[in-house]
Each structure stands twice: as C-alpha cells, then as structure tokens.
Amino acid sequence: MNHKRLQSSRFAEPFCRVIPCNCSFILHSILTHTYNVSVRTGDMYGAGTDANVFLTIYGDLGDTGERKLAKSENNKNKFERGEVDRFTIEAVDLGQVFKIRIRHDNTMVGADWYLDQVEVYDVETEEVYMFLCERWLSKKKEDKQIDRIVYVKVC
C-alpha cells in the first residue's frame, strides 16, 4: 500500500486561506460604549409602576436591542413616584443617538406608569441625550398605550 503517498497528496492544499480585511472597520464596529440611563418617573398620584420596563436606544450606527431595566443602581424599588432610577447599558457604538423606545409589559396590579423623561449619557463621548415623554404608559389612561417612541430633545 502506498499509504504515505495518499496522505501527502491529501494534505498538499492549505487548510485555510487568509482573507485581507479592513481591521480598523472591524475593531470600530465591535467596540462597546457604556450608556448611563436615568429614568424619571412623574411626581403625581399613581405615577409609579411595578410592571417590567424595557428600553431600546437608537443611533445612526445601530441600536441596543430591547433591554429590560431590571435593577436600578440607586433604588431598591424602581420606578416609584417622583424618583430617578439609574441603569448602565453596554452596547456597540450607536453613533448619534436620536430616539428611544420604552415600554412595559402591563404586569402586576400597579402597571400604570407616568414617565417624565429619560436621559442617556454616552460615557465615551460625554454626550447627553434628553428624551421628554411626559405621558402615561397605561392601558387605562390617556391614549391607552404602554409603548412609546420618544425622539431626542433638540436644544
């Protein structure tokens, strides 16, 4: 048997090819940014919620995908009347942030929520983006919507 010859001809071709790439583009697109998010609940009767709240941040380079705002960094009981809750989101570089989508899942007895505003701070660029909602997210109040798209406030 010519076993040695079969092996050498079988492995004569390279196993893989090196494909040139634009490494700076790849590195730029996978670098993460830290976004500090502050959510202010309105200061009126019944404004707080016990529902699960979800946020998506949109920029001209992409979006965060929907994120559950699960644990406030500064309040044990989040989204209470008149309080500001802080969250940290790690995501790809979004570029210039221009809108958010914020919603809740309408669970729990006290699901109605009056959202005053959301502030997004990009730690890497030191840019602050303000989103004024000043509306109810409620199946019973105002326009009965629990999902809001809010555009950045232009100063």
From TrEMBL:
<dbReference type="InterPro" id="IPR052970">
    <property type="entry name" value="Inner_ear_hair_cell_LOXHD"/>
</dbReference>
<protein>
    <recommendedName>
        <fullName>PLAT domain-containing protein</fullName>
    </recommendedName>
</protein>
<dbReference type="Pfam" id="PF01477">
    <property type="entry name" value="PLAT"/>
</dbReference>
<dbReference type="InterPro" id="IPR036392">
    <property type="entry name" value="PLAT/LH2_dom_sf"/>
</dbReference>
<dbReference type="InterPro" id="IPR001024">
    <property type="entry name" value="PLAT/LH2_dom"/>
</dbReference>
<feature type="domain" description="PLAT">
    <location>
        <begin position="33"/>
        <end position="151"/>
    </location>
</feature>
